[in-house]
Every structure is written in structure tokens, then in C-alpha cells.
């Protein structure tokens, strides 16, 4: 059995200009951070956490990022 240790050097809030990446090679830059009251919400009134450009998924042919997003709720 192998053990993987991960150390986080600095905890900080994300801000516009920060780059984020997923496990499937998708990456992007934070362009804007909206207050929670300005975010879209679902039929139960829960605001969404993240808004992606829908044109970025088929143009990059990276379907794994769509599969990865709902799996985050299980964690």
C-alpha cells in the first residue's frame, strides 16, 4: 500500500485572475466572483457554486469535466 501526503502551503480566498484546474485536464481562470444573492439558483432555491461557459465543453471535447462536477457532491 502506498501513502500519498499532500501539504497545502497557504490557504487563501480565490480572486479574479486565479487559475483553477480539474482532474480531467480542464482549466480556467476566475473572471468574476459574484455575491451569493446574484448567482443563479435551482428550483429549490439553492444557488449554484460555479458557472462554466457551455461552449468550452464541446469545443475542447473534454466530457470528463461534466462527469467530474456532480461527483464532487459525494465528497
TrEMBL record:
Cited Pfam families: RNA_pol_Rpb2_6 (PF00562)
EC number(s) recorded for this UniProt protein: 2.7.7.6
InterPro entries listed in its UniProt record: DNA-dir_RNA_pol_su2 (IPR015712), DNA-dir_RNAP_su2_dom (IPR007120), DNA-dir_RNAP_su2_hyb_sf (IPR037033), RNA_pol_bsu_CS (IPR007121)
The keyword Transferase is annotated on this UniProt entry: yes
Biological process per Gene Ontology, one example term: DNA-templated transcription
GO molecular function: DNA binding; DNA-directed RNA polymerase activity; ribonucleoside binding
Protein's name in the database: DNA-directed RNA polymerase
Amino acid at each position: 500500500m502506498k501513502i500519498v501526503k499532500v501539504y497545502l502551503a497557504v490557504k487563501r480566498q480565490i480572486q479574479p485572475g486565479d487559475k483553477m484546474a480539474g482532474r480531467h485536464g480542464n482549466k480556467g481562470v476566475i473572471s468574476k466572483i459574484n455575491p451569493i444573492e446574484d448567482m443563479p439558483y435551482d428550483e429549490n432555491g439553492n444557488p449554484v457554486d460555479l458557472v462554466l461557459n457551455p461552449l468550452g465543453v464541446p469545443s475542447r471535447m473534454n466530457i470528463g469535466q461534466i462527469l467530474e462536477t456532480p461527483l464532487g457532491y459525494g465528497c
